[in-house]
């Protein structure tokens, strides 16, 4: 037995008797074994790390609490350790489930210590299994030889004439009790499968006068009902003349051997369900065992390889040794573990993790080798893809224009890309492992630490760091500079990893300040232009009204009309001057002002009633300018013609909205609109001007004369 005294195993098994049995077996195999009954105990013991283990042997069904797969997942999140699952389940889906957690091994309970040990340290366990099987077989053979054979003799009539002590014990008949009885009464045999009587060998010998043997699966039922699996032979007893005088039966109890063979068959069946290839050879490396997994991996059938040298079947390439050097190492040290490349039957290569163990007999003499091989081609391919992906990611990170910095849970730098080197003036090798505070101005450090701690508690994967207000960085030379940052977090083996992406916004900040200054200057210039235009138009309005007061009625009316048109523009410019929006004014702000201002031009006192919708609507200055002149013409027309005979003159303006249309209804309580007046037939300049402006703004206008005459203007908004 090869001892592995420096290997420590944690056995997680809730069945106390079974755990005791497994622990004893493992300790007898040279392992240091610690047993815990639950997944929670295992987690606590492993995480504490007071007693580091080389391997965990994990039962899947652990009763109450965590099961084996959950426990394994939790442990692997804290520590990388080989875990071999132990279960009574052989369902493919359960095996697949464990493979998704770890692929160190899966052992079916009651598979024997051989399979258990093979999964722990590959070939050692199968070596123990074969040694145990051989030991049991040799022990059984020794016991069988020491017991001797049972012998019964009969005369030519098939009556018992002799029973030896071994036969007495097996049949339950003493020589005295059995003497003279029919052989079928003393030697009662049946077929173990059919439970039917088997023809007695004595009868066959007497008929054929030749030696006969019992068929397989024959059971001897003793006098007390005890059953023995036996093998026997019957031979004729002849006299000197060659005449048959009787028959001698020689038989032996093969019950134990039969059971051993059944157990061997059962273990062989279990080995055929192992996912690793298991190959046995004698000391000359000729193959004497080849399981189903070996057939699947290497494409050779068992019957094709038995008796052949393993070197003829599997061409093997070792990294640093020759095959002969490996064999010498195994002969000297007892085992070899490594990765090799082996060819299958079709010539295709397999990446194999191999465990080669020297197989000894019970006298500790070498009798052969056990090869346990695991195909790791897919695993190596996946590892290669991961490494390639990591290389690509590293290149992408290093080529990024933004600084990328990762820190661990203690806020120490674990990644510092090329852009970060340029931004902060540090080389990656001199900043790795240093606290992140080294890159942050001192007056920001507490606030920054608090922000990262709060972010870690939220569970959010990514967010901008603008909540800190102005964020600044600190270069190697002590210069502070403004930065724009976002932070993300992931969990690696249960520990948080934070990544910050930074952008130097020094140039952008300067540019934005300059743009804001220019925009402010532009705004002031525009307001000044509006102010001057308004003042100039106010001067024109004043001149026209002063001139109108010194003229006769006809000229005065013309000047007032012109002054009203200018007034509508003055009101618009005034609203634009005070407006916070760009080149637009709300109708709620504009129309009340323009109505009041235009009516005030005329000496007549007229009440203005407004009904304007509550929802704020912004219209651009160009449209409002045209609408303002239209409203001026309507008000001027009312002031000139409508109120000659009206004691309480009144003007009404109603503005409402319907879908995407805006309606303005204008009316007065004066003399009304003559039937002869229309926009298609009008001698006056005012209505002609209204018609042209309505067409210009792509609106519609009409006169309603029913009940209370009014002008209705329709605009699209």
Automatic annotation (TrEMBL):
Q: Which residues form the PAC domain?
A: 214-266, 330-388
Entry-annotated residues carrying 4-aspartylphosphate: 59
Gene3D superfamilies (UniProt xref): 3.40.50.2300, Histidine kinase-like ATPase, C-terminal domain, PAS domain
- Annotated Response regulatory domain ranges read 8-124
Q: Which PROSITE patterns match?
A: HIS_KIN (PS50109), PAC (PS50113), PAS (PS50112), RESPONSE_REGULATORY (PS50110)
Q: Which SUPFAM superfamilies match?
A: ATPase domain of HSP90 chaperone/DNA topoisomerase II/histidine kinase, CheY-like, PYP-like sensor domain (PAS domain)
Write out the catalysed reaction.
Answer: ATP + protein L-histidine = ADP + protein N-phospho-L-histidine
Question: Looking at the keywords, is Transferase present?
Answer: yes
Q: Where is the PAS domain?
A: 136-209, 263-314, 389-443
Where's the Histidine kinase domain? Answer: 528-717
The family database entries (CDD domains) matched by this protein are listed as:
PAS
Keywords on this record?
ATP-binding, Kinase, Nucleotide-binding, Phosphoprotein, Transferase, Virulence
| This enzyme's EC code(s) | 2.7.13.3
Question: Which Pfam families does this chain map to?
Answer: HATPase_c (PF02518), HisKA_2 (PF07568), PAS (PF00989), PAS_9 (PF13426), Response_reg (PF00072)
Q: What class of enzyme is it?
A: transferase
Source organism superkingdom: Bacteria
UniProt-listed NCBIfam families = sensory_box
Protein name as it appears in the record? histidine kinase
Which source organism does the UniProt entry give? Leptospira limi
Cite the source lineage: Bacteria, Pseudomonadati, Spirochaetota, Spirochaetia, Leptospirales
């Amino acid at each position: 037995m090869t001892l592995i005294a420096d290997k420590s195993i944690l056995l997680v098994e809730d069945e106390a008797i079974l755990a005791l049995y497994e622990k004893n077996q493992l300790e007898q195999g040279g392992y240091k074994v610690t047993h815990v009954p639950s997944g929670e105990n295992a987690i606590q013991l492993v995480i504490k790390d007071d007693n580091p283990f080389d391997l965990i042997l994990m039962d899947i069904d652990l009763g109450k609490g965590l099961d084996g797969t959950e426990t394994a997942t939790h442990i692997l999140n804290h520590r990388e350790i080989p875990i071999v699952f132990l279960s009574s389940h052989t369902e493919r889906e359960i095996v697949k489930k464990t493979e998704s957690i770890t692929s160190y091994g899966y052992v079916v309970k009651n598979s024997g210590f051989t399979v258990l040990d093979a999964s722990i340290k590959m070939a050692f366990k199968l070596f123990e299994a074969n040694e145990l099987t051989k030991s049991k077989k040799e022990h059984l053979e020794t016991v069988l030889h020491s017991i001797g054979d049972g012998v019964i003799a009969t005369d030519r009539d098939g009556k018992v004439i002799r029973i030896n002590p071994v036969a007495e014990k097996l049949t339950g008949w003493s020589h005295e009790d059995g003497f003279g009885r029919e052989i079928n009464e003393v030697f009662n045999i049946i077929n173990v499968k059919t439970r039917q009587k088997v023809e007695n060998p004595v009868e066959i010998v007497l008929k054929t006068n030749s030696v006969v043997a019992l068929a397989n699966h024959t059971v001897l039922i003793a006098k007390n009902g005890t059953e023995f699996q036996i093998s026997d032979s019957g031979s004729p007893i002849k006299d000197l003349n060659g005449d048959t005088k009787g028959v001698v039966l020689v038989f032996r109890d093969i019950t134990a051997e039969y059971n051993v063979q059944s157990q061997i068959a059962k273990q062989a069946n279990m080995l055929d369900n192992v996912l690793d290839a298991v190959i046995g050879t004698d000391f000359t490396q000729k193959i004497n065992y080849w399981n189903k997994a070996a057939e699947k991996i290497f494409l050779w059938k068992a019957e094709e390889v038995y008796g052949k040298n393993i070197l003829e079947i599997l061409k093997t390439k070792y990294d640093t040794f020759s095959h002969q050097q490996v064999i010498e190492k195994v002969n000297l040290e007892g085992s070899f573990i490594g990765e090799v490349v082996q060819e299958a039957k079709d010539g295709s290569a397999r990446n194999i993790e191999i465990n080669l163990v020297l197989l000894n007999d019970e006298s500790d003499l070498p009798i052969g080798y056990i090869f346990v091989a695991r195909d790791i081609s897919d695993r190596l391919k996946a590892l290669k893809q991961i490494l390639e992906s990591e290389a690509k990611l590293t290149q992408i990170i290093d080529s990024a224009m933004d600084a990328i910095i990762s820190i661990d849970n203690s806020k120490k730098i674990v990644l510092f890309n090329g852009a970060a080197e340029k931004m902060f003036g540090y080389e990656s090798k001199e900043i790795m492992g240093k606290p992140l505070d080294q890159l942050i101005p001192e007056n920001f450090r507490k606030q920054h630490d608090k922000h990262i701690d709060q972010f870690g508690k939220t569970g959010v994967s990514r967010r901008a760091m603008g909540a800190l207000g102005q964020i600044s960085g600190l270069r190697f030379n002590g210069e502070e500079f403004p930065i724009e940052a976002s932070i993300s977090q992931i969990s690696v083996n249960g520990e948080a990893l934070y990544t910050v992406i930074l952008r130097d916004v020094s140039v952008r900040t300067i540019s934005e300040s300059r743009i804001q200054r220019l925009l402010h200057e532009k705004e002031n210039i525009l307001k000044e232009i509006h102010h001057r235009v308004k003042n100039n138009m106010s001067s024109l309005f004043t001149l026209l009204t002063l001139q109108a007061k010194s003229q006769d009625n006809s000229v005065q009316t013309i000047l007032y009309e012109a002054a009203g048109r200018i007034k509508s523009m003055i009101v618009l410019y005034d609203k634009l001057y005070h407006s916070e929006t760009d080149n637009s004014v709300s109708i709620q702000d504009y129309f009340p002002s323009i109505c009041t201002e235009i009516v005030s031009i005329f000496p007549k006192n007229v009440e203005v009633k407004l009904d304007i919708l509550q929802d704020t609507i912004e219209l651009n200055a160009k449209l409002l300018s045209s609408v303002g002149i239209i409203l001026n013409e309507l008000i001027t027309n009312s002031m000139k013609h409508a109120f000659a005979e009206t004691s309480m003159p009144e003007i009404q303006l109603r503005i409402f909205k319907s879908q995407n249309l805006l309606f303005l209804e204008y009316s007065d309580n004066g003399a009304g609109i003559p039937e002869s007046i229309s926009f298609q037939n009008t001698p006056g300049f005012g209505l002609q001007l209204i018609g042209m402006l309505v067409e210009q703004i792509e609106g519609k206008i009409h006169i309603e004369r029913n009940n209370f005459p009014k002008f209705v203007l329709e605009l699209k908004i």
